[in-house]
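2024-03-11 09:14:02 INFO receiving multi-entity request
2024-03-11 09:14:02 INFO entity count = three
2024-03-11 09:14:03 INFO echoing inputs for audit
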Amino acid sequence: MSQSPTTSPTQDYDPSAPLLEVKDLQVEFRTKAGVAQAINGMNFTLNAGETLAILGESGSGKSVTAQTIMGILDMPPGHIAGGEIRYRGQDLLSMKPERRRKLRGVSISMIFQDALSSLNPVLPVGWQIGEMFRVHHRMNRKQARQKAIELMKRVGIPAAEQRVGNYPHQFSGGMRQRIMIAMAIALDPDVLIADEPTTALDVTVQAQVMRLLKELQVENNMGLILITHDLGVVADVADKIAVMYAGRVMEHTDVFSIYSTPAHPYTKGLLESLPRIDAEGDRLSTVPGLPPTLTDMPPGCPFNPRCPYATDLCRTDRPELLPVADGHTSACHYREELYAGTITAREEVQS
Amino acid sequence: MTEPNKRAAASAAVDPAPAPESKPKRSSEDASLWMDAWRSLRRNPWFVISAILLLVLITMALFPQLFTDQNPRECPLSRSRQDPSAEHWFGTDIQGCDYYSRVIYGARNSMAVGAIVSLTILGIGIVLGLLSGFFGRWIDALIMRITDLIFAIPYILGALVFLAVQQDRGVREVAFILILFTWPTMARLMRSSVLAVINNEYVMAARALGAGPFTIMRRHILPNSLGPVVGYAAVYTGVIIGAEATLTFLGVGLQLPSISWGLQLNDAQGYLQQMPHLLVFPLIFVGLTVFAFTTMGEALRDALDPKSKKR
Amino acid sequence: MSNPNTGAQPDPFADSEVVLDVNDLVKHFPVKEGILVKRTTGAVQAVDGVSFKLRKGETLGIVGESGCGKSTLAKLLMRLEEPDSGSVTFRGEDFLSLRGAALRRARRKIQIIFQDPYTSLNPRMSVGDIIAEPFTLHPDAKPAQGVRSRVKELLDVVGLNPDHINRYPHQFSGGQRQRIGIARGLALNPDVIICDEPVSALDVSVQAQVMNLLEDLQQEFGLSYIFIAHDLSVVRHISDRVAVMYLGRIAELGRDHEIYGAPAHPYTQALLSAVPVPDPTVRGQRQEIVLKGDPPNPANPPSGCRFRTRCWKATDICETEDPVLEVRAGTTQRTACHHAAQNEDVSALD
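2024-03-11 09:21:47 INFO inference complete, emitting structure
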């Protein structure tokens, strides 16, 4: 599926290697206020056909992760301080820029939150979709246009033949997101990164777009990385999930365990603070306080100032991401107790 | 249901104290945006250089006696056309006047024109731009059509035509003409920054509280839209001083017996070969003044622009 | 969980005073075209015949997708826009005909909290000045204890440190700024607060803090809320009654367990079924109604029922006859649909 004619020969790829593997990734931002550790030791593996959700609030480093994998991080101020990103066994970070650029769109592709600002307003959408074929497959205009129409039909844009010459502003938000998806999947990538793909959309349209993404994933056996803050969307589509907080992965496991047996206080707090549509809630439980600024991290566990279970140990020693069950890791000193449900919150949390 | 409730109670206790402090580095209580602007200006070397330069130039315009004890109007023909020397630093001109003191005294007229014009157009620009941007509709249409009309005439051409028919041309006349042709830029700039501010929800919040249009303009719109015009007015002062020198050099600006850099340049053009210093010295001063104002304006504009501030 | 049809429990607000009575409110925005001469070529029917009552201490949630008119409705209720027709009665007084001093007095009693905590506070004013602005504009409402001490009290009420009175908005986080906005809204002891998407710009963990605060304040001061949001879970959590809006009209209006437990309008059903539930074990078991297409252009809405172009139940009558918002057979809430019926598969309640 991935053998695109213009990319580098496939014999470089290790057939036994996972589709995408991120090892101990470190990304810093060097600002006037100091060095901010935007990503601190990220690890995950993505296989074909699998969906990994990276969940986090603003500033948690989830979008930086996406940009780093895609190779579109602004450098400076961004700086990759260490780690590896392996695509089919090959390290993307040590790859020649020329070669890496050829992988972009062909092997690894990305869709963004804001479709309107991601599309060029002065070019017809058909032209923009077709550009992928002209650049990577050296097709002529007519062929590219034909391909664009096919793709627009595939992502469910009605009357594609008539609308291929329309401009982005002539489409609704949901349709623009479909156009961006069409561009992203044009060259049958193996990995699709979706950065908050439905955040700007209404719920009925969000449902349509998520369904489309899921269908396309099954059709092409793509690996999907879904960057989001929405616990509802995650529950609907993800297989695995990494919960990020202040640049670190706090918990990493399959989607069922996260909701049934969260082993990190942050995950647990987030789940409990959600208003539920299917239950008449009393008072919402909250995660008190605010996330720390990346240039001014608390000593010990980054979550300790907000954590109802924090002890002196948490204020001095930073917990590593360690296993608590098979395929379930958590960066908490009390992960075992949380997992077993044998811990109780202390009455007071110091703020 | 008991477990979550307990958690809720526990977190409610902490709720009222959200976060110790997001930015501990800026712990000072008084941290208005003007203070922030001042803080960032102080660390900007360009601002410091231009401020020192302006201070010197302004003192020169106000108290020229501090810089020279020579009388610029004492011109014995006997010492005409001397080269720069220890006694006459910038030499003497064709009439035998001490050129250094003439250049020093020339600052006053140039600065006066610059200050009068830029302060006046700043005032006109703020008022008209505010009215135009805030009320919109016919007021906006009227003001904008007038600015279009004036924009259609290149100001050097306009000034040439108007000043050429004027018999007596002093600082007042030159300033008036420059004001006439330059206020639209300021009004338009102000209007666009008003439009950028007016749709903020805090303006709507004030309206919802029943604030009248003038209260809203004064409390909410003016303080947030002033930054760009203030910076630009400083830049423009430099431009105006250059324009005054240009007009005078072309023979339609100030007239003798006034002392000004433009007049000096005008006089010097005939003796460029023999006495280049007559041209060079006033030119350096015009250049320095324009540079000082422009740099100062740029620094001000950057410091006052909330968008340029990262966090 | 309980059966949704135990909705027989009486409405706790049935006997409370009607604070706000909105009747047949209409606001159309003209669409102008042309480069030199602007001609009016149509009208966006932002709000088109909206009626409801709000009682003391009650929260009315208004949900709908973008362009349904919910934000215009908020502006009409604040008199930031003047409606084309209809009436708003505030505690027995005709709110829309008030002018001058009487309007200023009434304005004190209806306040608003905005969505964006970054643009709703003037960056050049200190927090103290922002919260004191209501007193500056309404000098006769100045507190006896002194403005500054009242502002400190308000900061304390919304959970901020009163010592931070001299700080500026940029020194606070999004959630804290939203608290400042709430303090400003509370300053004049209002009866009604219109919350226009007050938590949608906030992160999940902070969102819960602000929602709890709003609930506490309601209890403490007996406030009535109109809570406008696009997030159905948030609205469900905070509201006593819910109005679902579609293209400028109310599609369904009822108590929260009626709307969420037994929705009868096809649009409400589609909306509810589209909300992802944060529970992977129900994946694939929920019935999902995925609507076709996008909402129609509000400048050119379909004839008859406005939802008919996307509705799977639509028949000829929907095209010709405008459905009235009324209680229909088999339901207890009011529904604007000719074919209103409970759908056994759709209920947000277990």
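2024-03-11 09:21:48 INFO post-check: Chain C touches chain B at residues 78, 80, 103-104, 107-108, 111-112, 114-116, 119-126, 133-134, 137-138, 156, 159-161, 166-168, 170-173, 175-176, 179, 181, 184, 188, 209, 212-213 (CB under 8 Å).
2024-03-11 09:21:48 INFO post-check: Chain C has a mean pLDDT of 85.
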